[in-house]
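Incident log, structure service

09:12 report received: a user says their structure output differs between two submissions of the same chain.
09:20 pulled the input from the user's history:
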Amino acid sequence: MSQPSLNQWQGCLAGVLVGDCFGFPYEDLPRKKTFPNTIEFIQDDLEKIKIGEMIPYDRGIKKPGNPSSPDGKPLPSWMSSSGSSSGGASNSGLRQYTDDTSMTITFAKFLIDSNNSLDYVNLARRFSAEYELDKPKMRGYGPGVKRLLTKFQEVNFKDVFQYALETFDGQGSLGNGCGMRISPVALYTINDPTLERLVDITIDSCLLTHTHPQGIFGGIFQALAVRQALLFGGRRKEKPSAIEFLNTFETEFKSILTNGATSRRTATYRTGYQIYQDKINVIRRFLEGGPSSWDLKKVIDELGNEVLSPKSIPTALFCFLASFQEIDFINTDNHFQRAITLAFTLGGDTDTIGGMTGAICGAYVGLDGFPQKFVASCEASGKILNVAEKLYGKCMTQILLNIRPVFNSSGFSVENPGNELHPG
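09:34 re-ran on a clean worker, output below:
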């Protein structure tokens, strides 16, 4: 497999943006009846976007305020108006993104700015500061995350890993909030064949907001799917079949419980594993049956379209893999468009499932595989492509220096300043 390209990095993060921006109007909320969740309407909408005749949609963005940082001090440089992932005031005629994209960009910028360590208190500060900037823009943060980000501010970011543990009667959230923002980790750790960094950073970052084992394993599932799309996509001459992709993915997903490099961290959360293995089996059965055998209601019943991680994250992988071939009820020959159309058609949490589908498919086909005008029709398109380019530069530098992580006494990953190299 060839080295993944900048085009794939940009495709991955732009895929989050497009799936999120285009998917949000189809989310099945009563106030969105003007955007019915029907295949005919969705296909017509996407075709209009391609030719620059986008159907108007107003999310009711409030007049922007003038927020300060959570502690009342001037905003740090990474949260200045030119650096904020919010992209300033809304742009007329562009589809606006939600918390999915906002947290993905914030996470990517955190990884870009990291030096010799990953400071998760700093990540909590960044998420909270971005949330404050996002308040006037109706980004759609879930109530649980809102409470956590507000709590972080109230306690001045002390013990940031404690509060997610206390949610849902001490069980922790199993929502898809970790999976929706995790794609930058797959990009950032692409040079680690052991998967140690991918698993470690995924778990540590998820624990800020989602501590349920199913939420944790959902983040790992999505990060591994994006990683494999990067490795299998791009300029590889012989593309795998959907089943070949799934088989390889399953082998890697199973390995994180037995691989010596990752089993130490995953052992605590292993009760969250089996439901995802079951979903892999469902995906395989649907793929083997082919589109002619699909009943979308059955797909929804067995894979899901909800905010819960097990009922949305495997669905995104299915939408990507199902779109390897033509689907008779989706009228496009473009892999990316077909994948997100299928995600939207399933209804439910369409912005998040669309964003996760877009991340996987974008990493696979690259930015060049997107229909024209798709990315440019979204708010902050230039910003997310720029973030992808900077993250790519960071990753390529790590590869050139052959950097690997070491661990501190708490078990959290610390970037090696250069004195330890990958063997071989």
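09:41 both user submissions now match this output. Likely a transient worker issue. Closing.
09:42 reviewer note: Confidence is low (pLDDT under 50) at residues 63-90, 405-424. Residues 121 and 157 are 7 Å apart (CA to CA).
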